[in-house]
């Protein structure tokens, strides 16, 4: 049913890309740099008069290529088309086995089949398809999605906190990364003094309050985290308390299963990041990685794919949380990002190595641009006003 539409879709995408590039070239004329790093300036007052640094167009073009796009489309289509009675049943069964994992009937094949036929399963199935479908519909690059983050993320949280949804940004936000550099930092009080505190991937705070603080306004996770803490009958995914909202990006479309199960029991909002925001972060992360790769190795951009395992390359949760804060806060403080020879990778675990799928050094380049030259960051609409960003190292 959807197949004949594909060439048309590709043409549309190409057109959109061309229009977007033209739009940027036309609009990027009068840029500016962030005047003051210190905290008093607000997002609206950032002047924009200084000309923009020139972007290297080959790096830009290469950063726009998303090699996981086809896999994403395939997976989404199969999940959406794999109805209970269709050819997708085996896959469906596999996907939903977790659903029946804690169901005594679900332990046998016969039992699992009963579960799949049950009305409750069917209701979940419909919700799952609706949630996945709504999300996948926004699978496009849109440079001004940054301006939409208030509506997409902050409004539901305002309502949850018993306030009318407000277009006002948070006065100040702390994004707390999980780097071992936080140990012995004594930053806990400073972190908690921000209006909103964003924490990452359910990192533990007990016993570390002096260095990492104890307040949590948003728990930002990737869907792998939810995948391991979601269960059919409840969602054990809120170490900061059931009232703390979760914002999550989706690593695999099938994780909407976990989302659907968790959302039905979670008391606070469980907000999935808009796909347009994900795609914006994807491009920015790849751009910074390409630049660093080219500078460090002197090799052609084409060599990046093999060197960084393009199919599995992904921005880190920390990076998207920082971009979220940049979109919904009037000033942003970044804690616990970065490394030192002596520091542990995570303050709360003994994990030795970094995951290869993230390019942390390239992401630090982005944070430094956020703090010093935000208009040197590509792909973001000119209309967007960057808040002051301070990095605590
Ligand atoms: C996507 O699906 C098509 C046909 O269903 C297949 O030929 C192609 O290899 C798949 N691509 C990926 C990346 O899975
Ligand atoms: C998530 O759960 C809340 C509360 O039960 C509900 O209002 C909301 O519609 C759900 N969201 C989705 C996308 O199903
Ligand atoms: C753009 O970057 C690539 C990769 O580093 C480099 O080979 C090329 O010379 C650069 N182009 C310009 C115009 O600077």
Automatic annotation (TrEMBL):
GO terms for molecular function: sialyltransferase activity. It is found in: Golgi apparatus membrane. Residues 1-22 form the signal peptide. Pfam families: Glyco_transf_29. It comes from the Eukaryota. It is a single-pass type II membrane protein. Keywords: Glycoprotein, Glycosyltransferase, Golgi apparatus, Membrane, Signal, Signal-anchor, Transferase, Transmembrane, Transmembrane helix. GO terms for cellular component: Golgi membrane. InterPro entries: Glyco_trans_29 (IPR001675), GT29-like_sf (IPR038578). Its main location: Golgi. Belongs to the glycosyltransferase 29 family. PANTHER family: BETA-1,6-GALACTOSYLTRANSFERASE GALT29A. This is Beta-1,6-galactosyltransferase GALT29A-like.
């Amino acid at each position: 049913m959807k197949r004949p539409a594909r060439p048309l879709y590709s043409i549309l995408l190409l057109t959109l890309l061309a229009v977007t590039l033209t739009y940027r070239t036309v609009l990027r004329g009068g840029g500016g740099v962030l005047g003051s790093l210190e905290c008093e300036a607000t997002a609206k007052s950032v002047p924009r008069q200084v000309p923009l640094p020139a972007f290297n167009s080959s790096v830009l073009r290469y950063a726009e290529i998303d090699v996981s796009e086809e896999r994403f489309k395939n997976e989404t289509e199969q999940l959406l088309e794999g109805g209970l009675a269709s050819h997708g049943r085996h896959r469906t069964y596999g996907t939903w086995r977790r659903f029946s994992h804690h169901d005594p009937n679900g332990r046998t094949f016969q039992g699992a089949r009963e579960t799949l036929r049950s009305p409750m399963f069917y209701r979940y199935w419909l919700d799952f398809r609706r949630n996945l479908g709504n999300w996948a519909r926004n699978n496009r690059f849109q440079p001004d999605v940054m301006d939409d983050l208030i509506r997409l993320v902050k409004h539901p949280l305002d309502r949850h906190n018993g306030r009318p949804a407000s277009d006002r940004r948070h006065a100040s936000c702390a994004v707390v990364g999980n780097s071992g550099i936080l140990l012995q930092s004594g930053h806990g009080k400073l972190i908690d003094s921000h209006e909103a505190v964003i924490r990452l991937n359910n990192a533990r705070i007990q016993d570390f309050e002096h260095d990492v603080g104890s307040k949590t306004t948003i728990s930002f996770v990737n869907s792998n985290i939810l995948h391991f803490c979601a269960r059919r009958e409840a969602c054990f995914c809120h170490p900061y308390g059931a009232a703390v909202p979760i914002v999550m990006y989706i690593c695999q479309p099938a994780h909407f299963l976990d989302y659907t199960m968790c959302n039905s029991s979670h008391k606070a909002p469980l907000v999935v990041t808009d796909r347009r925001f994900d795609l914006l972060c994807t491009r920015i992360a790849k751009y910074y990685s390409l630049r660093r790769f080219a500078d460090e190795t002197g090799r052609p951009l084409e060599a990046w794919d093999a060197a960084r395992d393009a199919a599995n390359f992904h921005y880190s949760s920390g990076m998207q949380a920082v971009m979220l804060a940049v979109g919904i806060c009037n000033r942003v403080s970044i804690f616990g990002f970065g490394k030192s020879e002596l520091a542990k990778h995570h303050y709360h675990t003994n994990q030795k190595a970094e995951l290869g799928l993230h390019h942390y050094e390239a992401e630090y380049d982005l944070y430094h641009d956020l703090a010093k030259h935000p208009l040197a960051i590509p792909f973001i609409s000119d209309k967007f006003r960057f808040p002051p960003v301070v990095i605590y190292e």
